[in-house]
Amino acid sequence: MELQIETIYGFISLYAMKVLIALAIFFVGKFIAKKAVQLSQKMMRKSKVDETLVSFGGNILYALALVFVVIAALSQLGINTTSLAAIVAAAGLAIGLALQGSLSNLAAGVMLILFRPFRLGDYIEAGGTNGTVEEINIFTTKLKSPDNKEITVPNGEIISNVITNYSAKPTRRIDLVYGVGYDDDIKKVKDILTKIVNEDERILKEPAPNVAVHELADSSVNFICRPWVASVDYWAVFWDLQEKVKIEFDKAGISIPYPQRDMHIVSDVNLEKGANSNTPEKKETKPKKSKTA
C-alpha cells in the first residue's frame, strides 16, 4: 500500500513539475512575444511605415510567435507535437486555398501601403472607377465619387490595373481643341485665344501656354490651347475657358463649324432618263425594192 502511494505521489510530482514548466514556458514565451512585437513595431514606425501596416504586421507576428510558444509548452507535457504541427500546416493550407482571393487583396494592400502610389485625399482613377481616396485598408480601398458616393474597391483590382493619380503633381495641363471655319482669319483666332489665356491669373506663366494650329480637318481648322494650372484649379479654369472662348468668338464673328455632309438626291425620273439614255436606239429598216429590167 505504501509502495502504491509513493508511486502515485511520484507520478503526480513528475507531471505537476511538467505542468509548471509548461505554464512557465507559455507565460514567459507570451511575454517575450509581446516585447518582440513591440520592438518590431517601434522599428517600423522609425522607418515611417504606415500605421495600418504596423498594426497588422504586429498582429501577424504575435500570432505566429504564440503558435510556437503553445507548441513548445505542449511538447514539455509529453504531447507529440509533430502531428499537431502537421495538422496546423494542413489547416493553414486549406484556409489559404479557400481565401485565395482575400489573400490576394491582402498582398495588394501591403504593396499599396509600402509603395504608396496614392495617399489619403488624392483623386485617382483605379480599379475601373475614380474618386477621392478616403481610406486605405488591408483588403480594400474606399473612394468618394464626385457626386458623394462611397466606392469600395478590392485592393487586388487596384494593384493589377493602371493607377492614374491626378493629385500626385502640383500642376496639370489643360488640353483644349477649338475648331473654326476655313473662311475665318486664323491669325485673329490665335490672338483671341492668346489674350484669353494671358488674362486669366490662375494660368501659370511657366510652363508657357501653347496656342497653335493643330489640324486642317474636314470641316474646320482646329486650334490647340494648352495652358498649365495648379491641380486644384484644373476644372474651374477648364469651364471658364470654354465659356470665355464662346463669348469672344461670337463677338468677333468667328464661326465654330460642325461636321457637314452634302447629299445629292436623284429622283426616279432622272434615273429612268439615265437608264434610257444608255439604251441604244433602234432604227426601222425598210426592205429595198428590186429593180426589174
Describe the structure.
There is one protein chain. With 293 residues, the protein is of the alpha+beta class. The protein folds into 3 domains: 2-98, Helix Hairpins, CATH 1.10.287; 116-165, SH3 type barrels, CATH 2.30.30.60; 171-252, Alpha-Beta Plaits, CATH 3.30.70. The chain has 8 helices and 10 strands. The chain has a 5-stranded antiparallel sheet with strand order 4-3-2-1-5. A hairpin with a 2-residue loop joins strand 1 (123-126) and strand 2 (129-136). The radius of gyration is 41 Å and the shape is elongated. The relative contact order is 0.07.
Q: Which SSEs are present, and which pair or pack?
A:
Blueprint: H1 2-46, H2 51-76, H3 81-98, H4 100-115, E1 123-126, E2 129-136, E3 140-144, E4 150-154, H5 155-159, E5 164-165, E6 171-173, E7 176-180, H6 186-199, E8 210-216, E9 221-226, E10 228-230, H7 234-252, H8 268-277
Antiparallel strand pairs: 1-2, 1-5, 2-3, 3-4, 6-10, 7-9, 8-9
Helix pairs in contact: 1-2, 6-7
Q: Give the strand order of the largest sheet, numbering strands 1, 2, ... along the chain.
A: 4-3-2-1-5
Low-confidence region ranges: 282-293
SSE string, helix = H, strand = E?
A: HHHHEEEEHEEEHEEEHH
Amount of helix: 40-55%
CATH fold type of the largest domain: Helix Hairpins
Number of strands: 10
What is the beta-strand fraction? Answer: 15-25%
What is the typical, i.e. mean, pLDDT? Answer: 81
Q: Which CATH-level-2 architecture of the largest domain?
A: Orthogonal Bundle
Give the CA-based shape.
elongated
Please give the largest β-sheet. Answer: 5 strands, antiparallel
The tally of helices reads 8
